[in-house]
Amino acid sequence: MAIDSHCHLDDAAFAADRGQVLQRARWAGVQGIVVPAYKAAYFARLADCCAQPSSLKLWPAYGLHPCYIHEHSEVHLQELEHYLESSPAVALGEIGLDRYLPALREPDRWRQQQELFAAQLQLAERHRRPVIIHARHAYAEVISLLRRHRPVSGIVHAFNGRPEQAYALLDLGLVLGIGGVIAQAQAHRLRDIVRRLPEEAWVLETDAPDMLPYSAYRRGWRRNEPVLLYENARLLAQALNRPLRAVMAQAEQNTRRILRLPAQC
Ligand SMILES: [Zn+2]
Questions:
Q1: Residue 132 forms beta bridges with which residues?
Q2: I want to staple 99 with a disulfide (CB 3.0 to 4.6 A). Which of 137, 165, 206, 214 is the partner?
Q3: Burial of 178 by CB count in 10 Å (0-12 exposed, 13-18 middle, 19+ buried)?
Q4: What is the 126 CA–ligand 1 centroid distance (Å)?
Q5: Is 61 within 8 Å of 92 (Cβ atoms)?
């Protein structure tokens, strides 16, 4: 059994065949999927997607993603709080900082990103919710804001930082989301880091429809989906030199602990 701790199942890329996508995942043994948000305009779509009857458990998370900083406003923060209070949100996410694209590094945008991230961390504190964090080219700043507004727990999704950053995040009570990055040929550093970490330190994710593992692309896949969680699990098991089943079970247990999900779906 397995949990995909990060998949944008509400995305338009799944509009035509979401039922089949879920069925494929279920057949393969995926038991549940955490579906993080990225902007307020799609909160209702996300709630609706997760409320549909399904053979899998779908857990929504709500948050304002740093890459859409130009679209967020004060009203959206209030809307976010409303969703946290009134819907079964398992976490606040995805939230964080991104300095990868020049437009996101522009001084005003960068300041807005930091303010929004801090405001959402405060919401997480107030509502005692775990966080799902997006960090790209901004680990130092993410860590320093997390030290100021400590979340109860959380996941740093698609972790691709340095060893000391991984340890700092673990110290803050977070775990690392392992997904598409480990499938990249140049992921030596990440494989090296996970080998040294305790087995409570990671969870598995796909980030579908993005981050299609290259091995799946070679076999003809053109869109990532939750069934490909197994691809990432296989690569993580290889890096750890442990049986696939043990890695899947450990990742599931870690996800349930961090997001405080019930022991059984
Ligand atoms: Zn994502």
A1: 93, 155
A2: 137
A3: buried
A4: 24
A5: yes
Reported as a single tens digit per residue, the pLDDT across 213-238 is 988 999 999 999 999 999 999 999 99
Query: Cα-flanking dihedrals φ and ψ of residue 221, to 5°?
Result: -70, 140
Amino acid at 240: L
Q: What CATH number is given for 2-259 in this structure?
A: 3.20.20.140
Report the separation in Å between the CA atom of 230 and the middle of ligand 1, taken as the mean of its atom positions.
18
Closest CA to 112 of 147, 59, 71, 153: 71
Residue 141, both tokens:
């700043």
Report helix, strand or coil for 82.
helix
Q: How much is the pTM? A: 0.96
State the pLDDT confidence band at 265, using cuts at 50, 70 and 90: low
Q: What is the pLDDT of residue 204?
A: 98
**Cβ 3 vs Cβ 28: under 8 Å:** no
Could you state, in order of their start, the residue ranges of all structural domains in the chain?
Answer: 2-259
CA of 8 to the centre of ligand 1 (A): 6
pLDDT at residue 258 greater than cutoff 90? yes
CA of 241 to the centre of ligand 1 (A): 27
